[in-house]
Each structure stands twice: as C-alpha cells, then as structure tokens.
Amino acid sequence: MIGVHKWYGEFHVLRDINLNVRRGERIVICGPSGSGKSTMIRCINRLEEHQKGRIIVDGTELTNDLKRIDEVRRDVGMVFQHFNLFPHLTILENCTLAPIWVKKMPKKDAEEVAMKYLTRVKIPEQANKYPGQLSGGQQQRVAIARSLCMNPKIMLFDEPTSALDPEMVKEVLDTMVGLAEEGMTMLCVTHEMGFARQVADRVIFMDYGQIVEMNTPDEFFKNPQHERTRLFLSQILH
Amino acid sequence: MSTVVDTFRFVRNQQVEALPPPNLARGPIAWIRENLFSGPFNTILTLVVLYLLYVIIPPIVDFVFVNAVWTGTDRDACRAETAGHPVGACWAFVIDKINYFVYGSYPVTERWRVNIFFALLALGVVWLLWLRAPRRDLGAIYFFWLFPILSYILLTGGDADFSNGFWLGFIVLSALIVAGFGAAARFLNAPVKPAVLIGAGIVAVIGITLALLEADWGLQPVPTALWGGILVTLLVATVGIVFSLPFGILLALGRRSKLPIVRMASVIFIEFVRGVPLITVLIMANTMLPLFLPGDMTVDRLARPLIGVAFFASAYMAEVVRGGLQAMPKGQYEGAMSLGLNYPQMMILIILPQALRIVIPGIVNTFIGLFKDTSLVAIVGIFDLIKTIEASRIDPNWAAPTISYTGYAFAALFYFVFCWGMSRYSLGVERRLATGHKH
C-alpha cells in the first residue's frame, strides 16, 4: 500500500497509509474503534474502495477493472467478525461453493479439499449441518476453512474473535496460531494481545486513520514510542 | 444468623434433574373454560359469535345442499312453482353449462386438445412444485420451453405462418446475436469460442421453437376469439405467474443497480405500471399496443391482455423481491465477494435463494392477487370464467330466480380452491425451508 487515502463523504478515514507486507509475514493491527483498521484491510480485497494512492496485491494493482478485482479476491482470504457464512447452505457446501464456481474445480475434488480443511479446523463431523446449528466458535472455524479452500496467498482477519463468547475465543485463536505456524501470510485486526505476542512479526497501531506506530511485538509492548500507543495499551492491558 | 446458612439457600451444590412440565388441567371442558369463557367479556364475545354463526350457517347449508337442485335440463327444474319445493342453488344449471364454463366457445370436436393442455399443465405444475419429484431440472425445461410450445400448437393448431421477411429478419438477428456474444467475450477477456457456442445455442433453441410453431401439424386452427372459460382464466394466470417472477427479479435487481440508466429505467417502469389500475393497463395494451407496432404487424387479441397482466404482475413482484433483497445483511454480500464470486454468481447462489425465501408469503400473495385479477380481462372482451358465467346466467332457457347466485357461487368456489391451494402450498414450503436453516 503506497500513500493510500480514503474518504467516507467528507470524513477522511485513511490518511496516507504506507505498508509493505512480505510473503509469510504475520501482522497484527490494533487501535481504538473508528481508527480505520478494518477499513484498511477491507481495502486490500476491495470491499472498500480507496480514492488515492496505490494498492498492489501480489503484483496486481487494484483499480476499477473488475477482472483484476476478482483475481485479487481469489488469492485473498477473509474472515469476518460476524462469520458471514451462508445460512442456506450446509457447512460442506459453504466450503465447496467458491472452489466449484470460481476455480471451476470438479465437485468431488472440491469436497475432498473442503474435508481436508474442515479436519484441520477440527470439525469434519459437522460437514452436513447448517451454520445455524453450530456454536459461534465453530462457525468462525468454518469461515476460516472456507477461506482456506480457495488456497489463498494471504489471509485477512477482521476482528475474528470479538463476536464470540469468551469460552470460544481460544479455539479460534488456536486455529489461527496453527495457521501462522505453517507460514501463512496474515493481516489480523484484533485486540487479542496474547495472540499478537505469540505469533506477530510486526504490530501496527492505528489512530485517526494513520499508522501511528509499527514495531516488533517485544518492542511494541515493552517500549511503546508514541504517547497515544502507551495510553491505549494501558487501557487494554490491565 | 450465620452467612453459611444464607449461602446454602442460594447456591446449589448438586445438579438439578430436568423435570417434566407441570400437569395442568387438560381435556375439552378445561379447554373451553380457558379459551371461550375465561371472563365476562370473553363469554359475551363467544355468545355473540355463536349467534352470528347460527344466523349465517344454516341458510348457507340450506342454499348449497338441502334445497339445491342437482338434476334437470332447463329452468323448470329450478323454479319453485314447477319444482314444487323451495329451490336453493341450481347446480343443474352449472352441470348443464359446465362445458361452456371450461372451454368457452372452443369447437366441440377439438376440445380434447384443451384437455391435453390441462393435463400437460398439471404435469408441469406437479413436477415443479413437488419438492421431491425426480429430475426437477428436466421439469423446468419441460415447463418453460416444451410445455409452452406444445400448448401453443395444441390450442391454436400451430401453423403460425411467419412471412419470409420474418425469417430473413430472424437470420440477420441470429447472426448479430452470435457476433455480439463473440465481441462481448473478447471485450471481457473471456474465451471467445464457448461464448460463440452459447450464442449459437440460444439462437438454435429460438429457431427450433419458431420452426415447431410454424410447422403444420394437421390440426384445425382455432382462433383465440373462440377460447373461453376456465381455459382462458388458467392460461392468463399461468402466463402472468410464470413471467412475473423472473421479470420481477430482474426489475428488482435493476432498481438496486449501481448503473444509473438501468436503475432509472427500472424505477420508471415499476412506478408507472404500479401507479395505474390494471384495467387501464389492459385497455392500453388492447388499444395502444397496435399503435406502437409497425403497420402490418398485429398482436393477437388474447395476447395483448396477457402481456398487460404479465407486466402488471412483474411490477408488483419487483417490489416484493426488492423487500427481500433489502432484508439481506451486508455481510452476505461481503462474504460472497471476498470469496471471489462475481456479481451473477453472488446473486444466483447466495443472495436470491435467501432473499426469495424471506418473501415467499409476499410472492404467493402477489400470485393469488394476480390469479383473481385475471377476471378483469373480461373488460377487453376476453371470455374468461366470469364472462362465460355472465353470458350463461341470462340464458332464457335457464331463467330462474337463483341462477345468478348459483353461477357466482360456482365462480367463488373455483377461485377459492385455487387460491387456497396456493396458500397451503406456500405454507408447506415455508415450514419445510424453516427446518435447520434458521440463523
């Protein structure tokens, strides 16, 4: 991302964002609400449009060209706060839908891939249920598996644990840690600082649409440079 | 006064077993007391309703069953003076005229063709609506392609007699369509060959359809002026229902489109058609449609109200479907987009199946309204069921006091059976879809 700006009407949400993510890097983004964290990662797969600057994903620049947007979305997986599973399809169908229709994979192969990833997120036995029959944590794990089925090069997580009951946060985080350990490139908006400490290569702090601070987790937590970061950390780390 | 005792009062130290619900008083008398006579106001209401039922029900039963006349060949059977007893409904009249009510003036020797049409229609409806029917994909092809062709050939006699100019125009148009598909594919960077094949396939299907319609099947031609009765009512309703849903979906999507021209066109169409009474639409379709068409081209007088009804129902359907689309959470769009689905895939696979499910009651409501509105085609001189009854009830051969009531009762029964069927079916579908899909 080079010099990215975005406005909602008159409101300047993203202000001159510059960020270079290397392959295999795991980045955690935190910051107060309304600081533009979600907007920033949603720009990466063009769920939001940026108005100035350039965003280049794996060599493809995001413009108004629909074909390129589809290309980028194929390689970028995304996990949402509210899961966004398709309630009218079974778990298995949720996972095989995109491989079948976007990648034109034969149904049988797609189901094999889906079962592989469902096994990896430890819920293969739920494959024929509907999302409404699963707990929040299970649904979020399905959402992760659904994204993985497209074999993405990078995964975006938009507050994946904030809509979950405390009991279920851990199962989702464990899945994400597993993913990180396998070398997946990850951009993760979260306030789970334990997760950040454990796996992040870099932690980014955002405020007022700007990247205020970016550092390794050790430095970030022990020695925050910016006054605003210090205040934020003191409020969430009791 | 120790805290230990207090704590015991509030904290369970072992799991409480699940108990059966308390055994309330049951049985019919308890039910009546609880639901009909639970208080003075409720008791009065119950008594009033019972009295009203007493006033209304017996006369209806008398009219429809007890005093009804079931046999007879003319008015003498249904006049109290000649029959020698009070006469209620004169079902003999309906039985005598039933062929006219069903077929209108369709030639007697050719009515077997209408019967086959009814059978084909029933087959198609059952195939599509019975959710466990085998090969419903084939059913869809049958109902939306084969069945209309067969119906057209059966009912009109086929032999559409297109002019040479028509075929020339068709060939030119076909070439344009195939070329257009190729050009569009190149423009969108999609492979050109399959696109051209798809275009050629569409052209071929249309061509085969037209050729089948033009072929001479040796059936006696029956002009639409002779069609009537239930045949016309079902025809208009079927065409309206079949066209309104897909067309309404397109209009609803158009109205929510980001492209200003598409959105404007949809809004203008919907608001214009919805802002005008159906009777006006029908009269306009009847008198103004020919004005817009080139001089030598005519549209059949039955086809005009068909088009009018289809447009009218589409506008209403569009608004129903739009309601469903608006009820969809934004996350469903985002989930679909983040997986790389393009717009048509997102709509067809994710959004529409859920949105349409939400608005099943509204869709069926529109269908039921449409089914009853078909009786308005009588205004432009089409002999639907109501019009055939109107024409029969003044037949001097059947001049008797209760003839008109009987005719209208028959019409009411007919409409009620179909509308109630639709309503029950939709309830069944809703219940079936509700299991396991809830959020």
Helix content of chain A: 25-40%
CATH fold-level label of the domain at 84-106 and 226-329 and 357-439 in chain B: MetI-like fold
Instruction: List the total number of helices of chain A.
Output: 9
Return the CATH topology of the domain at 4-81 and 149-235 in chain A.
Rossmann fold
The profile of the biggest β sheet of chain A is: 6 strands, mixed
Organism (chain B): Microvirga subterranea
GO biological process, one term (chain B): amino acid transport
Transmembrane segments (chain B): 36-57, 112-131, 138-155, 167-188, 195-213, 225-253, 265-285, 305-325, 346-368, 405-423
Subcellular location (chain B): Cell inner membrane; Cell membrane
How does this model look, in words?
The complex is a heterodimer of chains A (238) and B (439). Chain A has 238 residues and is an alpha/beta fold. Chain A has a domain at 4-81 and 149-235: Rossmann fold (3-Layer(aba) Sandwich). Chain A has helices spanning 37-44, 66-75, 91-101, 107-120, 136-148, 166-181, 193-199, 217-222, 227-236; strands at residues 2-8, 11-17, 26-30, 52-54, 56-57, 60-61, 76-79, 154-158, 185-189, 202-207, 210-215. Chain A is globular, with a radius of gyration of 18 Å. The mean pLDDT of chain A is 89. Among the domains of chain B are: 23-66, no CATH class; 84-106 and 226-329 and 357-439, MetI-like (MetI-like fold), CATH 1.10.3720. Chain B contains 19 helices and no strands. Chain B has helices at 3-10, 28-35, 40-66, 80-83, 91-103, 111-129, 136-156, 164-187, 192-214, 229-255, 260-274, 278-287, 289-292, 303-327, 330-338, 343-358, 360-373, 385-393, 403-434. Chain B is flat and about 80 Å long. The two termini of chain B are 50 Å apart. Chain B: This is Amino acid ABC transporter membrane protein 2 (PAAT family).
